[in-house]
Amino acid sequence: MKTLISGAGFAGLSTAINLSRAGHDITIVERAPYIRDTGAPLDIRGKAITVAEAMGILPALEASRAGLSENMTIVDANGSEIAPLPGDDVSDSVDDIEIERPDLVQIMLEHLGENVDVIYNDSIETIDDRGKSVGVEFVSGRRESFDLVVGADGVHSLTRRLVFGPETQFRQFLGMYIALARVPSGTVSDRHAKTYSWPDHMVSMAPYGGHVTAAMYFRQEWLDYDYHDPSAQKQLALEELAGHDEWLIPIVRNAIEADPDFYFDSVNQVHMDTYHRGRVVLVGDAGYCPSPLSGRGLSLAMLGASHLAQALSDYPWELERALNTYETVQRPHVVRAQDTAADGGDLLVPATQEELDKRNARLRAAQSA
Ligand SMILES: Cc1cc2nc3c(=O)[nH]c(=O)nc-3n(C[C@H](O)[C@H](O)[C@H](O)COP(=O)(O)OP(=O)(O)OC[C@H]3O[C@@H](n4cnc5c(N)ncnc54)[C@H](O)[C@@H]3O)c2cc1C
User: Fold this and answer.
1) 55 and 158 in a common domain
2) Of 130, 251, 327, 333, which residue is least crowded by CB atoms under 10 Å?
3) C-alpha of residue 285 to centroid of ligand 1, in Å
4) Residue 270's beta-bridge partner residues?
5) Is the pLDDT of residue 346 over 80?
């Protein structure tokens, strides 16, 4: 099958590995000039480990285990320890693998088959599903026909918008924003992950792969801002820190101001009645983002890629049946992952001082039990 995958994130790369192993001819089109690999490490959990084994990447993942899983410590405004923040709450088993993003990108790229082409700096412009094939025109002007188009272009998916409708139909905003900034080297000597909260806000500092990343979640109503203007996004994050000079917040502020690769987004889930229409199908955050609060987006994307490949190989001549099967098998995993996000939000970002105090007391008690 001649297949186009829009997006070279982990959903797109996983889909390419699975489908190329099944003999598809794959083109991946990635809008960015390179695969972005900044951000917090990721956990591969539960059934996604079996998927990784089938993809042939498990030994490489094992060899690159990040080993950062020591619990993050909650600190007060002076930096004094309150209690450990339990990472175990979201783990499926001790076999879960935590991995740094650059390592995972490298491993997935190395396992793309020879029948996979990756085109950077381009994007789909139009999709014309003609029934027997899909005509695609790219922003670069190139035109090509495919048997199948896989939208793996993330929570703000263009493929979804072009084929299924505007984002607002499917996006469920969880009332929170996330920001990530790399801390200039030499600024923080503490090599332990720490987090500090005040009502509606959580800020953390964590060392990943030789550098320290500042992360921030804050609860806020829906904000209208320009997604393509990093300085507007930085301003929104900085406003939330205004008047806070306790703990390491001045360093977080400086990191946000200085980081050219600053990451900012609303925290969303994607809920869809169907993951496919005609010859176009969605995988990963594009179709069923569980939100970063679930810690399961990668595992869900890897499972989705594997379920799609399995269904296509089970019903090679019946596309509709294959895509229905993919959806039926994948949906229970989506529901479970999406259900975990609310607990993640309550744990990380208590909304009131009372909830914050209760959380801290609970975690202190758990520590001394
Ligand atoms: C801070 C943070 C922490 C996380 N922690 C975890 C964790 O511990 N465990 C876990 O399982 N998940 C975690 N996740 C979620 C996880 O990263 C994603 O859910 C998972 O990687 C699947 O992403 P994706 O490939 O579907 O989308 P994305 O990672 O968003 O990738 C989409 C790709 O499509 C490209 N693209 C976008 N538009 C276009 C276009 N028009 N044309 C071509 N290309 C396009 C983008 O450039 C990008 O490369 C976390 C996410 C964040 C933000």
Assistant:
1) yes
2) 130
3) 7
4) 171
5) yes
